[in-house]
């Protein structure tokens, strides 16, 4: 995005700056490598980029420093093509600086875990986030690298049967103890894997006539945290976990009863603008799911942006589009839920990109007011007005 403090030298330059101010997307420092079909997890002020199509490298992006650090590579024998990475919940862990990542699936199935400790810790002056040198030294051989996923008897576990096609697989964590891995995959399958027993406890078919692959699959969470599922009590006090799935013409609300180990499915509307799309970037926050780009069955790539309201079960297609046509990009919310980051992807020329963009979440909550606010900020700087502008002034102008 253009620097707002840059002096204007020509009408053409002024026009360029106005356009850059109005666009809701900001270009950040380019990725160290081009990434497509990547997976990304947020951790405090970091975004962990975990490989991509034919790309084994993993990086941490520091959202404060706008810098990257290399973490590790997937083992040399691992071929990534449509894999999935989720953040596991460890209710027994007392170290908030540690997280455990589970990587699995893809066309060539693998199942690996990484115990991650921030590689930025030594540069962080915040005592809460510091890890002392001796502790890091002791962990160095076991942390920040992909290792086989093993059961309680130290036997390697592969998630998925030989017959399962896990390319473009999607998964979320749920269960009363956050111990269940819900997996949706090609052609129209859903299964439940118990992370405590290391066994599948449920297989089922999704009620759709369309194929499911590189799709949207999220938990229906009241608090906006994509990895946590809400718990609802029905008349018999059974706890149910709710998920949403979209792909092509398919829209489903999925409810799982943990006590009876059964699914219930409900059809959801799909808007015309997204009905033919998959391979889009998406995020779920509070009551909405946002969809960015994607492609259709004819490999025509989109730059459209759509919003689905879960509570109202309604769709909105935005006038603001992505700055480029984009597919196989991953979108991730910053942990404070203020920004949406876009990592890599492919453009309409099938070029794998090293682009990294972000947009403010509030833009898509109330886009008209935000554009007005940005324009006001431009006027102030352009006219070199020196005054104390406060948010209340913006509210007054928006009202009139």
UniProtKB/TrEMBL annotation:
Gene3D superfamilies: Kelch-type beta propeller. It comes from the Eukaryota. This is Kelch motif family protein.
């Amino acid at each position: 995005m253009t620097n707002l403090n840059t002096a204007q030298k020509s009408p053409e330059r002024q026009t360029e700056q106005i356009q850059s101010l109005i666009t809701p997307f900001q270009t950040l420092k380019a990725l160290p490598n081009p990434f497509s079909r990547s997976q990304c997890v947020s951790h405090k002020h970091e975004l962990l980029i975990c490989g991509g199509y034919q790309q084994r490298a993993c990086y941490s992006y520091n959202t404060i420093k706008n810098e990257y650090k290399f973490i590790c590579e997937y083992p040399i024998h691992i071929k990534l093509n449509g894999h999935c990475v989720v953040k596991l919940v460890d209710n027994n862990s007392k170290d908030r600086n540690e997280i455990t990542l589970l990587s699995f699936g893809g066309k060539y199935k693998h199942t690996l875990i990484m115990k991650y400790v921030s590689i930025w810790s030594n540069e962080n002056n915040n005592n809460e986030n510091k890890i002392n040198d001796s502790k890091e030294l002791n962990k160095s051989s076991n942390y920040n690298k992909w290792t086989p996923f093993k059961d309680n008897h130290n036997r390697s576990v592969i998630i998925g049967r030989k017959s399962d096609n896990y390319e473009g697989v999607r998964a979320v964590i749920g269960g009363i103890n956050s111990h269940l891995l819900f997996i949706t995959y090609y052609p129209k399958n859903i299964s439940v894997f118990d992370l405590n027993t290391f066994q599948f406890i449920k297989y089922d078919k999704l009620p759709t006539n369309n194929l499911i692959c590189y799709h949207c699959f999220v938990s229906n969470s009241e608090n906006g945290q994509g990895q946590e599922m809400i718990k609802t009590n029905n008349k018999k006090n059974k706890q149910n976990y709710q998920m949403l799935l979209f792909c092509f013409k398919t829209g489903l609300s999925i409810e799982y009863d943990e006590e009876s180990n059964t699914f219930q499915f409900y059809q959801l509307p799909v808007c015309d603008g997204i009905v033919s799309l998959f391979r889009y970037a998406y995020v779920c926050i509070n009551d909405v799911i946002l969809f960015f780009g994607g492609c259709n069955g004819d490999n025509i790539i989109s730059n459209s942006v759509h919003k689905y309201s879960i509570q109202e079960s309604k769709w909105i297609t935005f006038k603001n589009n992505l700055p480029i046509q984009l597919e196989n990009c991953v979108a991730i919310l910053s942990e404070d839920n203020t920004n949406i980051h876009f990592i890599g992807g492919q453009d309409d020329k099938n070029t794998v990109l090293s682009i990294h963009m972000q947009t403010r979440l509030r833009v898509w909550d109330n886009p008209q007011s935000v554009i007005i606010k940005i324009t006001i900020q431009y006027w102030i700087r352009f006219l070199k007005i020196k005054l104390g502008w406060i948010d209340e002034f913006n509210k007054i102008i928006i009202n009139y």
